[in-house]
Automatic annotation (TrEMBL), chains A, B:
InterPro entries: Lig_Pab1020_C, RNA_ligase_dom_REL/Rnl2, RNA_ligase_Pab1020
An annotated Gene Ontology molecular function: ligase activity
Protein name per Swiss-Prot or TrEMBL: ATP dependent DNA ligase
Annotated keywords: Ligase
Domain RNA ligase Pab1020 C-terminal: from-to ranges: 259-381
Organism, as annotated: Methanocaldococcus villosus KIN24-T80
Length: 385, 385
């Protein structure tokens, strides 16, 4: 692989100095990767004005696909929303999947994960399920959205609306951005474009005044919680201020369950933040003692039960895995995906393969070694420091 | 304060090289402190063979008081105890107070906290409540024990057996060590000495074969849990291997309550470790679903309720404090204690003072600024990153 490219041109495109660019290389903030014949640089962290997940394609014009910015969280609805927004607030549902940016570069559709890798699995699915003429006409746009459903290798979570003949998987656009400067289209324009091009997209639940938003959103959150869904993203109609997110009790507990099943692999911050959210929600929603007790019971069970389940599993001699059922259209797609997993340094175990016509249905286990090893050690008498 | 002392002599007494001693000074592992006219060096961390909390008195003979070693924890009773011990296991109750070493240096009784500071409050109380002739005869011993009861500035936890006419505070010896080399007396010898000198001490609950210990201890733990007590420390009769500890569900939940009341001050490790203990206990005790649910409810409530209580308190404009009621025998004792708190960089607030005869009853609040400030910020609309 030839590794020469003009640092000067890249720095100019990214609007940083050559010195800073070199620094980013030295600190290993930038890594080089390729997908098919497309080589690209990838920012593994936020650096200067450049978002984590930003990609510079090493073609002649050095096309850029900027990283999707972090969405901050409101711990309280009031006064956070009132303080943050200008006037009106658009309420959209937050879907529980994985963030994807779709762009077209040199006639090739690419689907990038949050961290900036071109995911061959997702790229295939996006091309299969979406008609992407929009990117012929608006080559400088990227379609940002959530890939949801049970049959994906990142966040397997069932959605009714993701169901099709073959699998539970779908892509919903929630943002269209200029891929070189990360500017979002106003929400109206995004909705119009999605409708014109017949693209699946997230629709606003409501548009409200910022002063009343907390009341409306509280009701929406309660409803979404009852439907076992994740939460909301709040946006300025013109996308002039950054969006905010707020999630349901249901998803906080789901996250806790996951965290305590993979208890030595997921970070303490992950666990702690979910619990904190529950505290502020319980306070803000002004629960009666009975409701607060129900919330506490949910939290306690979400922590204890998955943990004991994991310990019991290891005690039986098994290892802790997270299982994904994926559908591939060919052996070649499957092997491409396995190469990608290897590149991502995921340790996976193929648990089952079913072939139907040309299609493959594969059950894959992502192995959580740290959790498996540590539980085993403690069960064998290792001391806790 | 004259700061000259012979590094060579100190290094020799500590059995480390001068080079290492200098390194410890440079890395600020050693700090200098004084109590009355006694100057001493203090190890703030484990360093080489020297335990955290080790003190070198800067007198002519450079007396040493070694730090009390960390007691490791069994996450499972079986097979941990069987693997760890030689033959017999002495089961003692673990009291929930603070670890103190008492030594006599140059005719002065000193009570050192775990971290190695001479605590004026504790020194006074130890001298008041104990007859310490033993240290005249055995000048090279230190009495290691737990200071327990509601009326102390570190771990205010009520014990029936700590009650006296004036306050709820008592000292129980659980170990006698040679203070210069940290060698423990065999348990029999410790018990005999304590009885001869009429010193309050922790008595063995039972002595069992290591192969059966887990069964006996499980029953003891269930009983201690019902009595709302902390747990057990397991020891080799000759103190030839390090002790182990194991705690009750009750105290795990107590710790969680504390952690989530002071939610941004106590470390995540503190919270996480308590929860992990519950997981292994629930597994090992082979609970039925009903009992496991009760445990989960206790955990959930111990997390959510104190957290909401703290948020409600801050929402009302108050700050989060931990309150201690302390008894001082004179104004001078009180002011000495305040100086010590200042030195420890504790932020305290005097909430009330009652004077009775010569005695002072003082209500002191330890202020948790980080918790107070962060909750306030989130209530005012700060975003969660």
């Amino acid at each position: 692989m030839v590794k020469t490219y003009s640092l000067e041109n890249i720095a100019r495109k990214l609007n940083i100095s050559i010195k800073d660019l070199n620094k980013a290389f030295k600190k290993k903030i930038i890594r080089e990767d390729e997908f098919k014949n497309i080589r690209y640089l990838l920012f593994k962290k936020n650096f200067k004005n450049i978002e984590k997940g930003t990609v510079v394609i090493l073609n002649e014009q050095l096309d850029i696909i900027r990283g999707y910015p972090k969405t901050y969280r409101a711990l309280t609805l009031y006064p956070t929303i009132k303080e943050h927004f200008i006037d009106k607030v658009v309420i959209e549902e937050k879907l529980n999947g994985y963030n994807i940016r779709v762009a077209k570069i040199d006639d090739e559709i690419l689907a990038l994960t949050r961290s900036g890798y071109v995911c061959p699995f997702t790229t295939k699915k996006v091309k299969k399920y979406l008609k992407l003429e929009i990117l012929d006409e608006y080559e400088h746009y990227m379609l940002c959205g959530e890939m949801i459903g049970k049959n994906n290798p990142y966040v397997p979570f069932y959605y009714e609306e993701a169901e099709n003949d073959v699998e539970n998987l779908a892509f919903f656009i929630f943002d269209i951005k200029e891929r070189e400067n990360n500017r979002s289209l106003p929400i109206k324009d995004r909705l119009k474009l999605c409708e014109n091009y017949n693209l699946p997209h997230v629709r606003p639940i409501d548009i409200v005044d910022k002063d009343k938003a907390h009341e409306v959103i509280k009701d929406i959150i309660i409803e979404l919680n009852n439907k076992r869904r994740e939460g909301v993203v709040l946006k300025d109609p013109d996308m002039s201020v950054e969006p905010l997110k707020y999630t349901t009790h249901f998803i906080n507990c789901q996250d806790l369950k996951e965290a305590f099943y993979f208890l030595f692999d997921l970070g303490l911050d992950f666990m702690f933040s979910r619990v904190i959210r529950e505290g502020f929600m319980s306070y803000e929603f002004g629960e009666c003692l009975e409701d607060r007790e129900i919330r506490a019971i949910d939290i306690g069970k979400s922590i204890l039960f998955p943990m004991v389940e994991a310990i019991e599993k290891v005690a039986k001699g098994e290892r802790i895995t997270e299982d994904f059922e994926l559908i591939f259209d060919s052996e070649n797609d499957f092997s491409e995906f396995l190469d990608f997993m290897r590149k991502m340094k995921m340790i996976i175990k193929i648990k089952n393969i079913e072939r139907k016509e040309d299609r493959l249905k594969v059950l894959i286990g992502k192995v959580y070694n740290k959790t498996s090893d540590k539980i085993k050690a403690y069960l064998e008498g290792a001391l806790w420091e």
